[in-house]
Amino acid sequence: MSALTNDAEAAARLISFGMRPKQLPARDVVYGDLVRRYGEDSAFKQLTHAVAAGLGLMVLEVSTAAGAVLAATDESVFEIKMDSYARQSKIRERRDTEKVLHGLIHLAAAALGFPRPDDLANDTYIGRVSVEQVDGMVREACRILDERAAAAEANNDPLADAPELEQAWRAYARRPAAAATKDGRLAPDTTRGMVARALRFLADQGFLVQVSAEQGGTYRTTPRYQIQVRELAADLAFEELLALGVLEVADGGGTLRATISDTLQ
Prior knowledge:
about 260 residues; mainly alpha; two-stranded antiparallel ribbon; about 10% strand
């Protein structure tokens, strides 16, 4: 077997490790060696990117803490479609409205986990998010957008010209926040039920780790998630959500709270 073939196989193996969400270099000697080689060998790094591109993947980052973090390009066979996400998250309805609502939930989770630019730049930062926080943040955003919509209507400004988030707030606000099923579980069609499924999905992907069952489920962020949110931070809807000012940082230790006390009563 030629050296080039060996290198290509090694690059493909590194990518395969990156596609196992909960696999970390610290827990696997081969993975750790490949990560070190990626950082030290520029030719191997370029080959890894080329192999990834051929598979419809982008290499966002490779590090000891996060491993190989990948993202699917448009139309890649590895791209997570709504139907696939719906199956994994056990979403009963797959209409456009459901897509929008879950999009809002994922934006809020990312914003709660890393509300400041410095949080995304600091590799040691660990954020925390909970089902209660995420639901409260989106509901507070809905309240603010409702006020904006009322003002726009009073001024005869068409809502069609409003930012992306203003297209979705009504659907979320109409859903009840919480309701128990007969066996005591959180009803799946409530907003907190939707948030709980979304956060469990992120945990399954290696982006979050559950730390307690409090507040409907509380999670800490991972380096893998931090890298993904860095990419998301350039999204217009993400910027709009942060610009609403519904977050504030309680302290410098990574514990966050939303300014949502009235909405959680």
